[in-house]
Amino acid sequence: MSSAPRDRDTPVVTAIVVAFDSAHALPDCLGALRGEGVPVIVVDNASGDASAAVAEAAGARVLRNARNEGYGRANNAGVRAAETEFVLVVNPDVTVGEGAVAALVGAARRHPDAGLFAPKIVEPSGRVFFQPRSLLASRLPNPGGRLVLPEGEACAPFFSGACFLMRRDLFLELGGFDEEIFLFYEDDDLCRRIEDSGRALVYVPQAVVKHGRGRSSGSRPGLVFRSRWHQAWSRAYVSRKYGLPDPAPAMLAVNALKALGAILTFRRSLVERYGGSAAGAWAFMRGRSALRQEGLS
Predict the structure, then answer these.
(1) Which residues on neighbouring strands pair with residue 90, listed in sequence order?
(2) Cross-strand partners of 89
(3) Distance between CA atoms of 234 and 127, rounded to whole angstroms?
(4) Residue 1: burial class (beta carbons within 10 Å; 0-12, 13-18, 19+)
(5) Which of 101, 108, 121, 128 is least surrounded, with the fewest CB atoms within 10 Å of its CB?
(6) C-beta separation of 183 from 71 below 8 A
(7) Where does the Glycosyltransferase 2-like domain lie (predicted)?
């Protein structure tokens, strides 16, 4: 079994895992990281399950938040607590493959001026998730044609925040994840700031990880509404931040109509979905922040 590169037995990378009701997913995630010799900091966002206990039993260092601080703020706390040269941000439903962390660190050594290193993400179906474009990308905004996966290392303006490696100092220098965002688009925003700093984002296909896609947190009542609220709010927020057209009015109109239709047909799941999106867009238009929505300051 391979292990992450070490200098005189001192780890050079720490994994940061943010947990929120993630006890079901953590054993596989943390077990894979332990097998690669990577120390882990788990930031528990006030889970209602045994996430913190599971993480401690697996040998991880656990930072306990008194309340759910959101994905970006929790990751930032974990990175600040780390002391290694590199940090590996990992979702709890991600399992790193053998040699994946070493491959990412190796790429970082070969490309010292690059800013972010992304692995090949394989979904449960076997599909490779490769989306090198983003709402905020300054290039490749929506390329047409058939997407062809790179056969070797390649640069792109965006990679998923489910798993990536960065130098800790650079992450902190850039301000980490935007702490005004509670959930969604924080990876788009970070990738945009890395690009704007003149650094490349590098795809490292020899580093393979598996992603459970949506298994990070357990289900609970109101989760869909809350998730869609933040997705709409965060899209409007980053659009304004980078001078893009404001999508909030259109999101409000479209989703409010869809929510009304769902109410008339008694489809509760769709009421939550479209109602959450409409409410998030309306909140943004009224100037309500995502942090205030969550009772944070």
Answers:
(1) 17, 163
(2) 16, 164
(3) 27
(4) exposed
(5) 128
(6) yes
(7) 15-174
